[in-house]
């Protein structure tokens, strides 16, 4: 159930990351959703390494914050390494 939860939370986290960091990213909302899902997994992994809990226990505030943080990290990396 953890992976499915991270995917669903990643959809929301991608949208939140885009609202927090607006900008001209190619790909539109599809890319935002994909980056959000990847970011949710990254946030869960980093949270697990830091001892904050990397397991998605459901759709709650700590899980959403972790996923959104990961999505922001991925969005920053995407903007840094994409070709202009």
UniProtKB/TrEMBL annotation:
One of its GO terms (cellular component) is plasma membrane. Coiled coil: none annotated. It is a multi-pass membrane protein. The keyword Secreted does not apply. It comes from the Bacteria. The keyword Cell membrane applies. It is found in: Cell membrane. InterPro entries: Transgly_assoc (IPR007341). The chain crosses the membrane at residues 27-52, 59-78. Its main location: membrane. Keywords: Cell membrane, Membrane, Transmembrane, Transmembrane helix. Pfam families: Transgly_assoc (PF04226). Belongs to the UPF0410 family. PANTHER family: UPF0410 PROTEIN YMGE. This is GlsB/YeaQ/YmgE family stress response membrane protein. It comes from Kangiella spongicola.
């Amino acid at each position: 159930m953890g992976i499915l939860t991270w995917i669903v939370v990643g959809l929301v986290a991608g949208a939140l990351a885009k609202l927090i960091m607006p900008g001209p990213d190619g790909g539109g909302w599809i890319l935002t959703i994909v980056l959000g899902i990847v970011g949710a997994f990254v946030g869960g992994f980093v949270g697990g390494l830091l001892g904050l809990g990397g397991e998605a226990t459901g759709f709650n505030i700590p899980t959403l914050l972790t996923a959104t943080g990961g999505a922001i990290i991925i969005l920053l990396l995407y903007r840094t390494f994409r070709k202009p």
